[in-house]
Amino acid sequence: MLNQETKERLRQSLDKVHDWPSVYMFKLIFEPEPGRLERVQALFPPEAELLRKYSTGGKYLSITVREVMINADEVVARYEKASEIEGVIVL
């Protein structure tokens, strides 16, 4: 889970480089265990562009999601939900 200081720093960084609304690219990495992929996919609406890439050995799965976000708060909230899923690394 993200602490308040991390969330505020992320929010400020996002506001410096994005004019909202904006297409934002999320990156998540995790071991593709049963149920985990479904939980990650459930974080995003069906219209979001989702790309999957397995590591060379197939041990890890990288998910890249492009979605139109209204503001930095939405991005931070989505990262917070992702960080609650055990084994998911948010980049």
Verbal overview:
With 91 residues, the protein is an alpha+beta fold. The chain has a single domain (4-90), classed as Alpha-Beta Plaits. The chain contains three helices and four strands; from the N terminus they run αβαββαβ. The protein has helices at 4-17, 36-41, 72-83; strands spanning 22-30, 49-54, 61-69, 89-90. Strands 2-3-1-4 form a four-stranded antiparallel sheet, with helices on one face. Strand 2 (49-54) and strand 3 form a beta hairpin. The longest helix has 14 residues, at 4-17. The protein is globular. The mean pLDDT is 94.
The count of domains is 1
Provide the succession of SSEs.
Answer: HEHEEHE
User: Termini separation (Å)?
Assistant: 14 Å
Number of helical regions: 3
Overall number of strands: 4
Helix content: 25-40%
Mind telling me the CATH superfamily name? Answer: ACT domain
Overall spatial form: globular
Fraction in beta strands: 25-35%
**From the 3D coordinates, which CATH architecture would you assign?**
2-Layer Sandwich
